[in-house]
Amino acid sequence: MRSLIQRFAPDGRIARTRWLGEGLVAAGLGFGVPAVIGLVLWTTSPFPDSGAGGALRVVAGLWLLAHGAELVRAETLSGIPAPIGLTPLLLTALPCWLLHRAVRVALIGERDPALGPRAALWVSAGYLLPAVPAALYTLGGPISVHPPSALLAMPLLTCAVALASAVSVLGWPAPWPDPYRLAAAGRAAVAGTAAVVGAGALLAAGALVLHADAAQRTFGQLSGPWSGQIAVLLLGLALAPNAAVWAAAYGLGPGFTLGAGSLLAPLPFGGGTGEGPRLPAFPLLAVAPGGTGGGWAVWAVAAVVPAAGIGVLAHFTARGAVRSGSGPAATALTALLAAVGCGVVLGGLATLAGGPLGTAALAEFGPDPLLTGAAGAAWGVVGGVPLALALRAWQLRTAGPWQLLTGRLWRWREARAEQLEPVPGAGKGRGPKARRRRWDRTRGRGRGADRARPRGRWPGRRRKGGPDIEPLGPGTISRLRRLLRPEPSGAAAEPPLSAVPRTPDVPFDQETDGSARP
Fold first, then answer.
1. What is the pLDDT of residues 306-362, one digit of tens each?
2. N or C: which end of the chain has fewer CB within 10 A?
3. What pTM value is reported for the model?
4. Where is the domain boundary, 366, 396, 414?
5. Residue 496: inside a domain, yes or no?
6. Which domain does 160 fall in, by range?
């Protein structure tokens, strides 16, 4: 593709044309994968309602829905168009990965961080070009896109992912005040968000295991043919990340709603009714908790979510601070920025994971974005900042905990033994003479000096059976000085061989062995 662009593009525009082409390729791949799946399901369906054009319209609508756009379903029992704003996050993961890959390929061989935002915008422009005909193609079908939501959501998501990918490849551009701290905070925020969502996924998986019978019954009620069951299974897999985000919001505290003003949370937070409406049969909806509260067991299980986020955020922050040599103030600032970033990302995920599925009772589904983001940031600030400082201090310690403990125990044991052990010949061990004998014994003099033990930093780590260290006596230093002092000699020392001047008449062998000296 690069050679084709270099052949037809004018000089000076090769890079921009290549960036635009990478965005077009990413958009084509992102639309092609769901198109293939949709056409296969339409081909194997025993009751196809429309032709391949109708299936492709549905696929185009799902592709726009994956980017956060809102769809409108015209064919309803009441005749009122029903909005569909709940985005399957598994469908969103594919376009995000393709955009990230397109930006990485576009920036191959580049080293200037200032070039990253410009390349990201050109890749985003190329990616958004097919969105216009896709949105126009859905109009008039059973499921059409809501144009204002598409104009707002698609460019926002595309540019955000592209810019984040450019920063991850080339780093922050020059105008930012402290790019290293922002990069460290970004890594900690992403890791903390992944930990929170991962803990929510474990929470949702546990609920699904506990309510496996109800989920299996609802799965069988939705469709009889195997093609329909496969479609329901794929829909459940596409919504599985949404369930993880919902469970994460439940563990953070705000919870989520299932429509009709209901609230499902571990604590009565927000003034909801606590009871959900009568919902259609679906496996993921069958495992939802029943209202607010639930006792200490529910609170303990829900506390795993913020604990995982706090621990991972603090670990990444402290590790980066130790490697860069940052002080406590810089570490606290990095942890604070990471907590704010974690809250922003969680709020964005809650925005995509929730939305309307209809009108009236189904007009609101999922967690509240503002409350979820605020709760994630608050947990990070309250728990992440102190834990990051503690982990930094722990990683900068000079000795291990076991060494510190054993050293203290040995020193206390020796001091206690010296206090309790009587000195031979000192009576009851009282008075100035007894103190003098004890002092002489510890210094290696007098009676009992053979039982004196060496005192070091780690006395308990002396090799077993090894020789004791004998203290130096008062005459040892003077004897060593006499032995090492050179004896005076009356004979004059001969000059070194190197001092003999070299003349052309003296051969080299005689010059080296000194035989040619005058």
1. 999 999 999 999 988 888 888 889 899 999 999 999 999 999 999 888 888 877 777
2. C
3. 0.69
4. 414
5. no
6. 7-174
